[in-house]
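not sure who needs this but someone in the group chat was asking about Transposase from Sphaerochaeta pleomorpha so here u go. i didnt clean anything up, its just raw.
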Amino acid sequence: MAMNMQYERAYGLDLSKKTFHGCILDGPDLGNRHFFTGKMGPKGKAKLAGRLCKGDLVLMEAGTSSFSLARFLVENTEAEVTVLNPAKLYNIFNSMLKQEAST
């Protein structure tokens, strides 16, 4: 079943125990990129949540801090939050790299 998902903005987050780095994709076809950083403490999480709106997509790799932040964002925003399996991301990256190298 194909799903047609449309988002206003997409947030990609790279998390560590104390900080996060993010990239916002927005604009036509999500073609504009904006980078930001924040802290994983209560103030940093609240600031991130304050940026998010209904129609936003938040993507983060599963890790030590991911589920705590994901739960906070689900409870405090209307954004769609997805935690990604790092093993699957690695496989996707490697398969794309192999395809590009063979062309």
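also The longest helix spans residues 86-102. if thats useful
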